[in-house]
């Protein structure tokens, strides 16, 4: 299993506020859809609740502490470990949030697909964990300037976990 964290975070790692994303970036949504379609997506209950509905062509795995929680056509898990066990072991699985789930899953992750939104968001209440560049290597970087559809400059960044020892 390849575990990939996928997120959009500001330069101060801000993800969102009041269970909502802080920005609207259509190209980020397109990339998210392209990367996650056909895969299992793991998320916390609050992240699931914030979605506009079921994301098409993806299997939703929801982590919640609520023992009696149900969601139609979704897999419910009470821990990250349980969520990972519910996914195919020979496929790429995406962790899509929120902040606490990212933090828990970072040690298990193989890859991070991050949309780095240039600027900071001081009012955020959810944050992406700090990426330790001794453990992660930036392998791809694609910059997008702001335009009529995007109020912010942003960069698609791909990180892979270092497998060897750093000298």
From TrEMBL:
<dbReference type="GO" id="GO:0004146">
    <property type="term" value="F:dihydrofolate reductase activity"/>
</dbReference>
<dbReference type="InterPro" id="IPR012259">
    <property type="entry name" value="DHFR"/>
</dbReference>
<keyword id="KW-0521">NADP</keyword>
<dbReference type="InterPro" id="IPR024072">
    <property type="entry name" value="DHFR-like_dom_sf"/>
</dbReference>
<protein>
    <recommendedName>
        <fullName>Dihydrofolate reductase</fullName>
        <ecNumber>1.5.1.3</ecNumber>
    </recommendedName>
</protein>
<comment type="function">
    <text>Key enzyme in folate metabolism. Catalyzes an essential reaction for de novo glycine and purine synthesis, and for DNA precursor synthesis.</text>
</comment>
<dbReference type="Pfam" id="PF00186">
    <property type="entry name" value="DHFR_1"/>
</dbReference>
<comment type="similarity">
    <text>Belongs to the dihydrofolate reductase family.</text>
</comment>
<comment type="pathway">
    <text>Cofactor biosynthesis; tetrahydrofolate biosynthesis; 5,6,7,8-tetrahydrofolate from 7,8-dihydrofolate: step 1/1.</text>
</comment>
<feature type="domain" description="DHFR">
    <location>
        <begin position="2"/>
        <end position="161"/>
    </location>
</feature>
<dbReference type="GO" id="GO:0070401">
    <property type="term" value="F:NADP+ binding"/>
</dbReference>
<dbReference type="GO" id="GO:0006730">
    <property type="term" value="P:one-carbon metabolic process"/>
</dbReference>
<dbReference type="GO" id="GO:0046654">
    <property type="term" value="P:tetrahydrofolate biosynthetic process"/>
</dbReference>
<keyword id="KW-0554">One-carbon metabolism</keyword>
<dbReference type="InterPro" id="IPR001796">
    <property type="entry name" value="DHFR_dom"/>
</dbReference>
<keyword id="KW-0560">Oxidoreductase</keyword>
<keyword id="KW-0808">Transferase</keyword>
<dbReference type="GO" id="GO:0046452">
    <property type="term" value="P:dihydrofolate metabolic process"/>
</dbReference>
<dbReference type="GO" id="GO:0016301">
    <property type="term" value="F:kinase activity"/>
</dbReference>
<dbReference type="GO" id="GO:0046655">
    <property type="term" value="P:folic acid metabolic process"/>
</dbReference>
<keyword id="KW-0418">Kinase</keyword>
<dbReference type="GO" id="GO:0005829">
    <property type="term" value="C:cytosol"/>
</dbReference>
């Amino acid at each position: 299993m390849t575990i990939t964290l996928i997120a959009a975070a500001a330069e101060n790692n801000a993800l969102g506020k009041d269970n909502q994303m802080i920005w609207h970036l259509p190209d980020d949504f397109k990339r998210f859809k392209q990367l996650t379609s056909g895969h299992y997506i793991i998320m916390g209950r609050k992240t699931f609740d914030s979605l506009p509905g079921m994301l098409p062509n993806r299997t939703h795995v929801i982590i919640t502490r609520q023992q009696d929680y149900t969601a139609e056509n979704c897999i419910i898990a009470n821990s990250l470990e349980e969520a990972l066990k519910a996914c195919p072991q020979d496929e790429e699985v995406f962790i899509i949030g929120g902040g606490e789930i990212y933090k828990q899953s970072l040690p298990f992750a193989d890859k991070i697909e991050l949309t780095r939104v240039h600027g900071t968001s001081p009012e955020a209440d959810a944050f992406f964990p700090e990426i330790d560049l001794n453990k992660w290597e930036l392998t791809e970087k694609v910059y997008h300037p702001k335009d009529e559809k995007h109020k912010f400059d942003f960069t698609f960044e791909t990180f892979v976990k270092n497998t060897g020892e750093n000298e």
